[in-house]
Amino acid sequence: MTDLSFFHTPGSVAVIGASDNPDKIGGRPIEYMTTLGYRGALYPVNPSRPMIQGLPAFGSVDSLPEVPEVAVVAVPGQAAVDAVETCARLGVRGCVVMSSGFGETPDPDGRRCQEEMLRAARRTGMRIVGPNTQGLASFGSGAVLGFSTMFTELPPADGPVAVVSQSGAMCSVPYGVLRRRGVGVRYAHATGNDADVSAAELAAAVVADPAVRLLVLYLEDIRHPAAVEELADVATSRGVPVVALAGGRSAGGRRAAASHTGALANETRVVDAFFERLGIWRARHSADLTAAVDLYLQGAAQPRSPAAGEQGLAIVSNSGAICVLAADAAADHDLDLATFTTHSRERLGAALPAFAATANPVDVTAALMTDSSLFGKVLPVIGADPGVDACVVGIPVAGRGYDVATIAADVRAFAQDSGVPVAVAIAQPDVGAVFRDAGLAVFDDEGAAVAALAQVRRHGEIAAAAPGRGRLSTRRPGASVHTLDEADSLAALAALGLATVAATRCADADAAVAAFDALGGVPVVVKGCTAAITHKSDLGLVRLGLTDAEEVARAARDVVDIMARNGVAEGAVLVAPMVRGALEVMVGAHLDPSFGPVVVLGAGGTGVEAVPDVRVLLPPFTAADARAAVASLRMAPLLGPVRGDAAADVDAWVDMAVRLGREMVRPGSRIASVDANPVMLHRGVGAGAVAVDALVLVDGGAEL
Amino acid sequence: MTDLSFFHTPGSVAVIGASDNPDKIGGRPIEYMTTLGYRGALYPVNPSRPMIQGLPAFGSVDSLPEVPEVAVVAVPGQAAVDAVETCARLGVRGCVVMSSGFGETPDPDGRRCQEEMLRAARRTGMRIVGPNTQGLASFGSGAVLGFSTMFTELPPADGPVAVVSQSGAMCSVPYGVLRRRGVGVRYAHATGNDADVSAAELAAAVVADPAVRLLVLYLEDIRHPAAVEELADVATSRGVPVVALAGGRSAGGRRAAASHTGALANETRVVDAFFERLGIWRARHSADLTAAVDLYLQGAAQPRSPAAGEQGLAIVSNSGAICVLAADAAADHDLDLATFTTHSRERLGAALPAFAATANPVDVTAALMTDSSLFGKVLPVIGADPGVDACVVGIPVAGRGYDVATIAADVRAFAQDSGVPVAVAIAQPDVGAVFRDAGLAVFDDEGAAVAALAQVRRHGEIAAAAPGRGRLSTRRPGASVHTLDEADSLAALAALGLATVAATRCADADAAVAAFDALGGVPVVVKGCTAAITHKSDLGLVRLGLTDAEEVARAARDVVDIMARNGVAEGAVLVAPMVRGALEVMVGAHLDPSFGPVVVLGAGGTGVEAVPDVRVLLPPFTAADARAAVASLRMAPLLGPVRGDAAADVDAWVDMAVRLGREMVRPGSRIASVDANPVMLHRGVGAGAVAVDALVLVDGGAEL
Q1: pTM for the complete prediction?
Q2: Which of the residues in chain B have pLDDT under 50?
Q3: Domains along chain A?
Q4: What is the ipTM of this complex?
Q5: FRET partner for A539 with CA separation of 20 to 30 A, picked from A261, A518, B111, B670?
Q6: Shortest Cα distance from B661 to chain A (angstroms)?
């Protein structure tokens, strides 16, 4: 990992384009560093004034008493290029170029300027953050190399959270949410155009800081997955959870991203798979970046095995309605409710008002109003129950007449003694503040509390599975591909060890009948076999369920005619036995421009495009990874034993995916894309899975 | 509709069990009414004190100077029963029984006491709210017949919103959220056990008040759908949107509800369908009850035709990232983005900084910091674009250096001039307050803003479709049902005008062969036909694709043998032609204990239980309603024209659902349940749909 720590603890900083006005972009870094305890040398550069915000100013970077370790560039256009070139020549280690109008615009001049800055930096090994960046802020050292308005609105405080973002706003917004909630923020970095240093590379440096315990990350594109992999390695080794928001999940969002930072946002399912394999939680909306932060900081997302199982959520409230609604929310998030032991229920019965239910959820009833000790009696019982691995405490109504401090202390003691994650749902901000001051994770409502618990639990599971996965392959799509016909495609899969239907390529109707006879008279399918026509069934090139020689001959002749009419003179005829009575699934693979090899598995058949039910895996992955992906499909319940039928042979399907994944990352592989659909998946141990149709593309213009 | 207005504007109120301590349950109503402007006569009843909170107290209800119009009962157990009986005898119009320990407990004494109160009330026509209720609060009149802590925590203010809830907490929580946001609340009613007056009945009275413009409703069960229908009628005629949360969507939530108010929470899909047909929005979590309230109060949920179409959401922000994320959120909610006209784009190009994109979303860029007039230039163009029907304005960062007041005024002018719903996403509370004070709908983040716009839009659509739907049938499940065998089931469907496969019931193998011959030799299915065995394929009673007489005879003999071995001596054999090459769908119907007739349609085949993709309709409904339900299925994209094949004949399927719905509400119908699965749905106009398997249950113990 490259050393970027000089951006965090620079010995000296020059601000090029420094302003005496602290509201100007060139004035903000000066104001922040002079007021937030930065101890290094600070050099305002501005040829037109002797003093800037009380500091002596300099006419140029050349005239400083020393070569600054880092420079902040706040001058526009060509002046910025000149400043960067001077810094590089002098031996400055890093520049933060805040100015805009470069690579993010369609203006060729701006793009050229960005290229020139990059070239200058690369000549001497200087690093550039930006251009078009709000800049970096390190509150541990007071080195604020940026201009975010938010540090004026909400005073910084050093703490356990780091925010790293391509976007300035998506740096400022999480910073603001965290600070308003009283959480300390150590880094608030925005990287802009990522021309040199990427958000991920900087995030890796940030996460290496032992004072950081949670990383909040916003990305608009992932041009260099390897940088994210390095970041994830550091985070995993330090046990730092990473919550990432990658904008551009939708087509509309991707269009917007393209005109924002010029980002080519990545395919959503691929990004999902990428983050999951690295143990990174993918947020969907900006609010999700910080929603569970209190639980994270309590260590609730420590890697946990999904096999922990058999435990569940306990719900306690002084409102029956909140018990009901929290249980509903748990179901929404696939969280099981804990089943209390008989012993626990007896103890709850003794503690609770007569007639209160002793099962989970526990409604201590409005009696809390007259007996504030109720939580103190009930919670230790729940904490001691072996079936409880998380707890929601809902207190929708408290205030005058309630001993809020005692209740908060009881909940706090429960959280500490039991060690299980506890989320407190409190609608009244003043009541919530008492609980927050007691060190508890407080949420506005039961829905948010349950969602956060579900997130840290699931995050702990993916984090547990992440270590030991290899790096992604560097294979990328080639310049050209060659399409194999169906017979060759099936043969290519067979060569990889995938079971394929016994298809025979026949030149004419006679050969087709011979193939039919050789199959022993079972019902067959007759298809046109040519790489030149893709959607064969639309043209009548697929004839199913043929049971006698005459039908086969007629179908073969038809198919040859149709191909000829569609300009395919040398099309062959494929004869294969019908495979029936199996589940139709699919497995595929392709090369993503950013992430390289991608394997897809899911429900198969003709509906796969219209109603997709697929999961993506990035190789290398294990059979266990593939099995987990299968288990998360919407169709998964169909794979189990149903109505007396045996479970589907998922292992056979998983094996296909593993073999494809292995091939896609094999050095020298020429497979560019595979679409095996349908794969007929049989029921019963060892019953197998067989690809009955396939389309394979290979790199380059020649045969495999 | 019964008159319940005396609960809202009582001329006189007695509080039985009045307390001098305003923190006691019997003290709160006195304190609230004396401080919140109640102008009627207020009579504390307490035999042990001459004065209560400065008012003369009375020893019993009998000794008051007049018969009070309403009494609040705060004494427990048998004393409450006595008080209610006295009130009824005296001619009190309504009692609010706050005391607990009655029908909500498993205690037979408590249940008996509740029954006695009810009997006493019914003898004289007195109405009871509760028992076990937090009580009612009418801030228009100051009549607070309840003890909610929240009115102490947050001072009431009369306003356009009414909250009605079975649960006390779920009355107090929305009240608190609304008041903290500065929204006035006219009614905050909790009804408790709903022994007499139900939450829905009270809500109908509330919605009839011309001052109410939004109803927030929490229900734990819907024992009397007719009361909700009446409420919806009033709300629809007055144009008042209703947002309802029905707890117990999950199995865990239903268990919790049963031990809370003794509620038997209803089947989720049925409740969804019930609310939708009435134009009521179903919230999922407590926060959803109030999330979109500002947009509602601006009239954004006025009934709108889904055919309005061809319009979409505009997104404007000073942050490119918020543009990206709002577009992603719009896709999550199936909201289209507006496409601006060329004219608009030219005008935007003139208004925006050079190189800023002029397409939707519009990123005015960080230039807003130096030019606060940017929104004022851009928004009128967007407001004039005919393709825009809603707008998100995202301002993630503002504050010092920004002219926030000008920006807020510009957004306000845009909202007023354009008339489209505008949701402003602002992360900084102090900045948000400026916009809220300007009368705008403000949200914490882009995700919440887009979700609220999507909600009011969809709510407007279901509200537009609601009027004119008839009342639900009062048919309910009978005491016993009789199961028809497959042949009789198919015949019963055919009698209703549903197309069914041409199945022949055969006594033996010879008859089966004759039936096969009569079908002209097409492939057939041979099945065991008996009502005594349900899962026939598990036992080998279904033989598919038989193509010659010998196969048919052998299958028929097998089937008869298997039935005999399973104790069915008189089972017949069913012979029917195979129906292939169609989509497998299903249609069904049954009688719900609370809602009566229910029609179900969805994806068919063996996966329907494991991976359900179904929608519920409550008759009476129209073909348009059924078509809308089909269009919302996950499988819907498969029904369109795919790969050259024609669209499926959805009309034929819809017609089956309509016929079933009509039968289920027909007076005298004996159909208790129908499960037609699969229905083979063919592609092509008029291609039809045919039920190939069916199970029909009829009321009573005899044949149909």
Answers
A1: 0.93
A2: 262-264, 702-704
A3: 1-132 (3.40.50.720), 148-290 (3.40.50.261), 306-465 (3.40.50.261), 502-577 (3.30.1490.20), 583-699 (3.30.470.20)
A4: 0.92
A5: A518
A6: 28
